[in-house]
Design goal:
single chain; alpha+beta; Heat Shock Protein 90; 5-stranded antiparallel β-sheet; elongated; disordered N terminus; binds adenosine-5'-diphosphate; binds magnesium ion
Length: about 375
């Protein structure tokens, strides 16, 4: 009996001991976990703050102190207003300082973007996330903060360099256009005049009855060559820059382009536009002309189309340009080709005029380019408005 009891007690004691050991182990584990957690927060490279409901900093890690150029001791117990610019007046709770989403599109509701204040008063951009936990019946906000000044600086530099590239490309386009205009004019005025006067001389020569007979076919051959030279010269000059463009006659310039395209590539091309509506200033006429020219070149090179339709309409102070073909259709990956600059150039020209452009595959087949250009100030004074 005693033995049994003793045995029982011994068994119970052993179980109690096991339980106690297990408990101790669990306690140690949780201690370890706590220590690990503390260590992580302590050594984190991101700044971490715990903030009480009254926007007083309860805890700051060394990274936070470093970020605000102060000490942990100075931060803890201090009000958040010393370190974070409140986006609203009378900010009271931590959530007033870190508004959901930070006003930035595409961010989670727990992400924010705010302005930090360093101990020396310098302001700097901060991004991070916030979480609220319930602790002893009180709400505590834990925020992770990241100093994004460096990134902002890089972004600004990138934006500036992008801007400069745009300006450079636009300046180069203008210079190129001016050179083309200049050469076209020289060809037309100088060389053109010379050839025309040569032709007149030849005509006079042909009228001369005293010419020796063998020179007649020679002179006729010369005249034929001269006519070819004049036609070539006109074609080259027009290719460089159609005269119509300089006279605000975009409609006639496009008609020329259309006719030449049909003749050269055997692809039907229809132009729906109103002549008076296309009397635009030089920059706009040139941009539209060059865009249509590039689009037609692309159609000839890539589309395998049999028909092209060009629509230019003035609606509500905007010029709507649509270029459609019935070819194989442009693919998304075509528009990403690094070495292709035609579409890039089109977009740049449209953006330079504050317009919008969309390039897409068309239904049921083919490619369409839709452009909307605001016309305020771009119509020529003698042109009808609207
Ligand atoms: N009308 C079109 N139909 C089908 N594919 C097109 C059309 N226009 C452009 N593309 C495709 O888009 C690509 C990019 O065009 P672009 O930037 O003008 O460069 P490039 O003409 O020098 O190749 C072309 O290589 C072609 O694959
Ligand atoms: Mg091209």
């Amino acid at each position: 009996m005693f033995g049994f009891l003793g045995g029982y007690c011994a068994g119970q004691a052993a179980a109690a001991l096991r339980r106690a050991r297990a408990l101790r182990r669990a306690g140690r584990d949780s201690d370890n976990r706590r220590i690990d957690g503390r260590r992580i927060v302590h050594s984190a490279s991101d700044a971490i703050l715990s903030i009480g409901e009254n926007a007083v900093i309860l805890f700051a890690n060394p990274a936070a102190a470093h970020m605000f150029a102060t000490s942990v001791a100075a931060m803890q117990g201090s009000t958040l207003a010393r370190y974070i610019q409140a986006p609203v007046r009378n900010a009271r709770t931590p959530l007033d300082y870190f508004p959901a989403g930070g006003g930035r599109a595409g961010r989670r509701a727990t992400d924010y973007a705010v302005t930090g204040i360093r101990a020396n008063g310098h302001l700097f951009p901060i991004e991070g996330s916030i979480s609220v936990v319930e602790q002893n019946g009180r709400r505590v906000c834990n925020v992770i903060l990241r100093d994004v000044s460096e990134r902002h600086l890089v972004q600004q530099k990138l934006a500036r360099s992008h801007d400069q590239l745009r300006q450079l490309s636009s300046a180069l386009q203008t210079i190129r256009e001016e050179e083309r205009t200049h050469i076209a004019r020289e060809l037309h005025d100088d060389l053109g005049q010379l050839l025309a006067s040569l032709r007149m001389d030849l005509t006079l020569l042909q009228q001369n009855n005293q010419l020796p007979e063998p020179s007649r076919p020679l002179i006729e051959g010369m005249e034929a060559n001269l006519l070819t030279a004049i036609a070539s010269l006109r074609r080259i000059a027009t290719n460089l820059r159609p005269r119509a463009l300089d006279e605000g006659g975009l409609y006639f310039a496009l008609q020329g382009l259309r006719a030449e395209f049909e003749e050269r590539h055997g692809i039907a091309c229809l132009l729906f536009a109103d002549e008076a509506g296309l009397r635009l200033d030089d920059a706009t006429s040139t941009a539209i002309f060059r865009i249509v020219q590039e689009a037609l070149t692309n159609i000839a090179r890539h589309a395998e189309a049999t028909e092209v339709v060009l629509n230019l309409d003035r609606i509500d102070g905007e010029l709507l340009v649509t270029i459609r073909d019935n070819g194989r259709g442009i693919r998304a990956e075509d528009m990403e080709k690094v070495e292709s600059l035609g579409l890039v150039g089109m977009r740049e020209r449209v953006w330079a005029l504050h317009g919008q452009i969309a390039i897409s595959a068309d239904e049921p087949s083919g490619t369409r380019i839709d452009i909307a250009l605001p016309l305020d100030g771009h119509a020529r004074p003698d042109a009808p408005s609207g």
